[in-house]
Amino acid sequence: MIVYKHTCIITGKCYIGLTVKTMMARWAEHIADANRNKRRKFFAALNKYEPENWIHEVLFESEYAELIIEKEIEYTKLYNSVKNGYNTIYGGTRSGIKHREDSIEVMRISQKAAHARRRDDGTEGGWTRKDGGPMLGKEHPNKGGTNVSKGKSMEQIRKDAELKRLNKQKGIV
Predict the structure, then answer these.
(1) Number of domains observed in the structure of the chain
(2) Which tens digits make up the pLDDT trace of 79-134?
(3) What's this model's pTM, rounded to 2 decimal places?
(4) Which residue range(s) make up the domain with 163?
(5) Is residue 104 part of a domain?
(6) How many Cβ atoms from other residues are within 10 Å of residue 86's Cβ?
């Protein structure tokens, strides 16, 4: 695993990251991600400045994940890449990130409004096919059973499974 640094030679700003891949494999992923997600500041910079305007460095290498995470945080602070660079957080893992209370409130209000809108539109129950589906007007061949059970009772399905398991043990297929 490595901690790496991508620096834009035009702005002097950098992005610090960590990966288990090679630095250039991760760079290729960043380029691909930038085409899909233009809102993050690093991806916006990748779209604005051509790939040849970036230099790449491996800052630290280790086989220990905890150490790599610590070093990513350390280098992000050392290069000030959150306030004066392209990182959005100081590194480590995103799983520990908590939303601010005001952000949670905005999301709660937005979700309530979306549910109310769907309720008013009559679409609250979820997605439904517009054409009614392939079985519209037809009787289901299993009359409520599944394709696997073919209308058999659960007791019969268990017996069949046990018989199949015993036959497999004996070498009978």
Answers:
(1) 2
(2) 999 999 999 888 766 544 566 788 788 888 988 888 888 878 776 666 566 676 77
(3) 0.54
(4) 142-168
(5) no
(6) 22
